[in-house]
Amino acid sequence: MKAGAGTDREDDHDVLVGFIDGLARLPLSTSGEGAEQVERSVTSAARGLGGTASVAVLPDAATVTVSSHGRSTAIVVRAFPEVFRMDRVVVLKPLLDEVAAGRLDARKAGARLTAITRAAPPYPWWAKLLGVVLFSVGFAPLMQPTWYEVGSTAVLASVAACLAVAADRMPGLAKVLPLVAAVAVSLLALELFARSPAHGGPVLLMLPALFFFVPGDYLSAAAAELAAGYLTTGAVRLVYAVALLVQLYVGVMLGLVVTGRPRQDLFDVAAGPDLPRWALFANWIVFTVGALLAFAVPARLLGVLLVLVYLTVGVQTGFTRLLGDLGGTFAAAVALGAVTTWLARRPGGPPRLVLVLPGFFTLTVGSLGMRGLTAVAGGYAIEGFRDLTELVTLVTAIGTGLLLGAVLARRPGDTS
Q1: Distance (Å, whole) CA 329 – CA 397
Q2: 62 forms bridges with which residues in the sheet?
Q3: 296 contacts 123 by C-beta, under 8 angstroms
Q4: Can you tell me the distance from the alpha carbon of 76 to that of 59, in angstroms, rounded to the nearest whole number?
C-alpha cells in the first residue's frame, strides 16, 4: 500500500511537471507575452494543481522548478519567439482559469493543453496571405495618405505575404524571413514604384509591405519588462528586436546595391495626400480584418478588436492635439492597457495579449527604426537620428503606458 501510494505520488508529480513544461513553452513562443505574464501563468497553474513553481524567464527560455508530492524537479524550457498564432492564446486562457481555480487535475489539463498545441490553424494558408496584405494596406495611409501608396502596398505586400506563408512550411526561411522579405520588397519598390519623387520616398513605399515583420511588439515588450524590473529579459529582448530591425535594414540596402541606385535615393519625403476622409476612416477596418487573419485571431473577436483600434486612434488623435505626439501616444497606450486588462479579467473574456495586438500596432513603433536606419544610410544623418531618437522615446512611452494602464486596471490575483 505504501509503495503503491508512493508510486502514485511520483506519477502525479511527473504529470504536473509535463504540464508545466508544455504550459511554459506556449507563451514563450508568443513575443508579446513578456516575462511577467509567463511567470504569472506558470505559478498560478502550479498552485491550482497542488504544487508550486518558481520561474526565471528569458525571451527564448525559462528555467522552472516544480515542487509537489514531496519532490522537486527543475526543467529548462526553450521556445523560439516567432510570429504567433493567437487562436492558441485564446483557447489557453479558459484552461488556465480552470486550472488556477482547481477544477482540473494535471492529467486532464495536460490532455487539453496537448489538444491546443496540436490543433490546426483556424484559417487556411491563403487566408493568412490575404491577412498580411490587408494588414499592410490598412497601415499604408499612415505612411502616405495617397492612392498610389495603397496600390503599391497591395502589390509589394502580396510578395511579402507569399514569403510569410512559405516560412510556415520552411523553418530555415523563418530564421531569415525579415532579410529575405526586405530584399524582395526593396527590389520591386525601387524598380517598379519609386521612380519619381512625386510618389514619395522609397522607404515610405516599402514600409507598409514590411510592417508585418517590423518588431514593434518586441521593442515595447522589452521597454515594459525593463520598467517592471525584468532587466535581463528586457535587455535581451531589446537586442533581439534591434537585430531584426537590422535584418530589414540590410535587406533594403541590398536591394539598393542590386538595382545600382545611389544611397541618396533613400530620401524620406512624403507625397501630397489625395485620400478622402472616408478612406482614412475605413482603413482601420481593413487593418483590423487583416490582423485577425494574419495572426489567426478567432473571427468572433472582430467587433471588440475594431472598437479597441478606434479607441486607441481616437485617444491618440485627441491627446496629440493637446499634448503633442509623445503625450498622445502615452495616453493612448495607458487607455489601451487599462481597457484590455479590464476586459481580459472578466469571466470568459479574451486574453489581454489578443486584445492589445491590433490597437498596439496602430501606434506604429518599429517603422520609425527602419526609417531612421535607412535615412542615416542614405546620408540624411539629421533626419535619421531624429527618427531613431523618436523611436526610443515612443517605445518607452508605449511600453510604460501599457504597463501603467494594466496596473491601474488589475486586481490582486489576476492571471490574464
Answers
A1: 7
A2: 57, 77
A3: yes
A4: 13
Tell me if 28 sits within 8 A of 38, measured CB to CB: yes
Residue 415 has pLDDT above 70, yes or no: no
Q: Which triple of cell numbers denotes residue 34?
A: 513578456
How big is the CA angle at 113 (ends 107 and 115), to the nearest 5 degrees? Answer: 105
Q: Which of 262, 139, 154 has its CA nearest to residue 202?
A: 262
The answer to whether 353 touches 37, Cβ cutoff 8 Å, is yes
Question: What is the pLDDT at residue 310?
Answer: 93
- Of the candidates 366, 345, 349, 357, the one whose C-alpha atom is nearest the C-alpha of residue 297 is 357
Q: How far apart are CA 403 and CA 396, in angstroms?
A: 10
Most confident range, picked from 73-82, 152-161, 272-281, 328-337: 152-161
- Residue 241 corresponds to which cell in the numbers above? 528586436
Q: What does pLDDT average to over the chain?
A: 82
Compute φ and ψ for 412, nearest 5 degrees: -55, 135
Which stretch of DSSP H or E encloses residue 65?
A: strand 61-68
91-95, 130-134, 162-166, 172-176: the lowest-pLDDT one:
172-176
8-state DSSP, 212: G
Cell numbers representing residue 279 in the block = 478612406
- The Cα angle at residue 386 between residues 380 and 389, in degrees rounded to 5: 135
* pTM for the structure as a whole: 0.84
Distances (CA, A) of 296 to 71, 122, 126, 350: 39, 6, 12, 14
Q: Spell out the alpha helix ranges (H) of 260-380.
A: 277-294, 302-344, 352-361, 366-377
The residues near 229 (Cβ < 8 Å, ≥ 6 apart) are: none
Cα distances from 212 to residues 82, 172, 244, 384, in angstroms, run: 12, 19, 12, 22
Residue 351 pLDDT level (bands cut at 50, 70, 90): confident
Report the amino acid identity of residue 209.
A
> Are the C-beta atoms of residues 77 and 28 closer than 8 Å to each other?
yes
The residue type found at 158 is: S
pLDDT, average across residues 324-328? 83
